[in-house]
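Researcher: Quick sanity check before group meeting.
Model: Go ahead. Protein one:
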Amino acid sequence: MSIEIESKQFSAQPITKQGRKSTMSKEAAVAQIDAVPTHVTRAHIVDSVRSFFSTYPAAQVEEILPRAELFASDAVFEDPVGAPPYVGKAAILDFFKSTLESGWIIHMHPEQIIVCGDEAISLTAGSWGLPDSEPAHVRLIHNFAFDHTGKIVRVRVFFDRGTVA
């Protein structure tokens, strides 16, 4: 199956920094984003990202299965970025199961979802910890990439010491 992507041309107005206001208008910025080729709709990406986060917190394996179904069979999940990635849907599901089985209670809330092309960034508020303990509160960035069928092919999770309270 092949999909043709229409090539779009755009011309953004220059942004000046010579003591004047930016000359890039909202319309030019939107046109620039609209010119990025995509395989799936923005609505699909936003819905998928929200579906991913809606499975938190999970108490039983059945509650994480819908999260795993969002992934392509050869997807890669890197959490946190720089750690060895989980490669393939089965390995990703095993990772989700292992966090559940370890007793971790994880809450995730996407505060803002930014979509560009076939990717999205979620500015996420999260917390995790074991029962009867004070959870860590974390600000994270999730980077999602989607294939032409609308499945997630990559997730990269960013956070560091400065985002943990």
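Researcher: Fine. The other one?
Model: Protein two, sequence then structure:
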Amino acid sequence: MKQIATLRHKMIQLLDRVAFFDGFDANEKLLLVEGKGMLVIAEPGETIIQQDTLDTTLYVPLSGLLEVRRRNEAGEQVALAQLHAGEIIGEMGFLKEMPRTSSVVVLEQSILFRCSRQALKNLSPITREKLKDQLIDKLIQRIQEQNLKLSENQLVSPQPQTS
């Protein structure tokens, strides 16, 4: 991945288009853009996260398309989901310092916001709290979506037949 060190104005515009950063003011966005290595460009075919590795970096795509893949028991990579701008990637490793449960591969050139645990510590307390709040909101949204899918599956699953 290449770090983005120029074009601050364009990078702030990308942050402005992603709901994850809506609660951040202009100064906070500028600090995120100027943070060393916090914005990167990833090319198609590049692996952002490798399954089973220990890495505590969180990513938020600002543009592009990525795919979540998991190696099955036969050792084959199985596509699980596609991720677009505004999703969060790597939150479990970021929060729990645990091995990655899947891989994430770039399908289309992507610009990503990248935040390591160390970079998080270097942010101002207010910006750090906003980032954590957004992360919590995204996780709640995912849980709600999964609960809905589970309830829909239970409604349409065949009922056991009684004799």
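Researcher: One line on it for the slide.
Model: The CA atoms of residues 86 and 152 lie 25 Å apart.
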